[in-house]
Design goal:
The protein has 16 helices and two strands. The chain has helices at about 1-10, 15-45, 55-80, 85-105, 110-135, 135-140, 145-170, 180-195, 220-225, 230-260, 265-290, 295-315, 325-355, 360-390, 400-415, 425-440; strands at about 295, 420-425. The chain starts with a helix and ends with a helix. α7 crosses α13 (about 325-355) and α11 crosses α13. Helices cover about 80% and strands about 0% of the residues. The chain is globular. It has about 450 residues and is an all-alpha fold.
């Protein structure tokens, strides 16, 4: 109790739980993306310029599948058990996965690398619902926009760093990529230690029994989601957003740098990082502008801005194989694309947390993870299908055309998803009368 009283009187930025979560998720996202990006570079090498043989889409699907299989159960588990304990356990598992990654790189087997990528997805699926579900338990509603803005901003900062470093690693350690995993093991150990800074919160539903429906999304959780149309359409919008992001980031950008511009992995990694720079800026701005409300204007501006960025990136140049805005324009367009993505996603994250009854937060975050990763898995399929279409055409289609395919995905959001702004406190008030009967009946 004394710690809770102290938390009432201090800035969220002085809270050691905030610092612990911020650093823990930063290091975890960094490790995931270093391994994944190096593997995507390996996939491009194996394709040897043949578009139809590019396995980047397959790798995206492999990473997404464990989220689809496990997110529902992990969401149930995060409400059944201590979210703090789950966060720490997932970080210990990250150490194991990174050790397996070193062995996979040593073997040189793409199958082994893909298998480790699958386990990496499983470990992240366990982490996700507790990572986001614990935030409204640790912090006040008025702090959630800033907290989510900081969490998402540093997540994407870690991705920027991962993309930049992974390109440098691939060029400098070619043939000895296992050394990168050794470094990642050390980072996972540090992330485990910082997770210990997070304070314990009450378990949401300690007496909740397991039902087979928890492997997907439980009936009562679907009932909560369907009852609030804002919640339902936010989940749909987030899923479409991640489908689009999976096509663009980093698959299409890797192709643009290596295949179309003829750059090496290091330069391409820096190109991919441009989107991450924009996302980090967008998350910071969205967290500041949202304050204590869900700002629908940011969502609408973000989706429209993303569409404009994708169209600019897809425009062909005057000569075959070139891009109309040039590589300098591509850099600016990718930063703009990321900035608008940050403006779009932070308010959605805040709305999901604020609009969910407190004792359903973990399971709704699990449903969110499930929807997002179904979207990412579909992005791998979508990317692979368009690669086959482009490679089967009689005329040469430049690699930047994939951005046009991505624009088709975001277009429905621009046309039909136009949420209204609302104060977070008023959303919480709507659920008070619904929460109490459910909590009483569960006892």
């Amino acid at each position: 109790m004394p710690e809770e009283t102290l938390h009432e009187n201090r800035s969220v930025y002085q809270d050691r739980s905030f610092i612990g979560m911020l650093v823990t998720q930063f290091l975890g996202a960094f490790n995931d993306n270093v391994f994944k990006q190096i593997l995507l570079f390996v996939c491009i090498d194996l394709a040897a310029g043949k578009r139809e043989d590019n396995l980047q889409g397959v790798a995206t699907i492999v990473f997404a599948v464990p989220f689809i299989l496990l997110s529902g159960y992990c969401g149930y588990f995060s409400d059944k058990k201590s979210k703090r304990d789950i966060v720490i356990t997932s970080k210990v598992l990250e150490i194991v996965v990174m050790a397996l990654g070193a062995l996979a790189f040593l073997s040189g087997s793409v199958f082994a690398m893909m298998t480790v990528l699958f386990f990496m997805g499983a470990q992240s699926a366990l982490f996700g619902p507790s990572k986001y579900g614990i935030l409204p338990e640790l912090f006040k509603d008025r702090d959630l926009p800033r907290v989510n803005g900081a969490i998402l901003m540093t997540t994407f900062l870690s991705i920027i760093l991962a993309f930049w470093i992974s390109g440098e690693i691939k060029e400098s350690l070619d043939g000895e990529l296992w050394k990168a995993s050794v470094i990642c093991i050390g980072i996972a150990v540090v992330g485990t230690l910082t997770a210990l800074l997070v304070r314990r919160t009450p378990v949401a539903h300690p007496e909740m029994s397991f039902h087979i429906s928890a492997l997907a999304v439980k009936h009562d959780t679907w009932k909560v989601i369907r009852k609030d149309r804002r919640l339902f359409w936010t989940l749909i919008a987030a899923s479409v957003f991640w489908t689009t992001g999976g096509v663009v980031y980093p698959n299409a950008t890797n192709d643009l740098g290596i295949q179309q511009f003829g750059w090496g992995e290091a330069a391409t990694g820096r190109l991919a990082a441009c989107t991450g720079i924009g996302i980090a800026l967008g998350c910071a701005v969205a967290g500041f502008l949202s304050r204590s409300k869900f700002d629908g204007r940011l969502v609408r501006f973000g989706s429209t801005g993303m569409l404009i960025g994708l169209v600019l990136l897809a425009l062909p140049g005057s000569t075959p194989g070139t891009i109309a805005i040039g590589w300098q324009g591509a850099v600016l367009a990718l930063i703009w694309l990321g900035f608008c993505a940050g403006l779009f996603t932070v308010p959605l994250q805040v709305l999901l947390q604020a609009a969910t009854p407190r004792d359903h937060v973990g399971r709704v975050m699990g449903a969110m993870n499930l929807a997002n990763w179904i979207g990412l898995a579909l992005s791998g399929v979508y990317y692979s299908i368009w690669n086959l279409i482009f490679s089967g055409m009689n005329v040469h289609i430049p690699y930047n055309a994939m951005y046009g395919a991505a624009a088709l995905l975001i277009l429905p959001l621009v046309l039909f998803y136009r949420p209204e702004s609302v104060e977070l406190g008023s959303i919480k008030d709507e659920h008070i009368s619904d929460d109490k009967p459910e909590m009483n009946s569960s006892r």
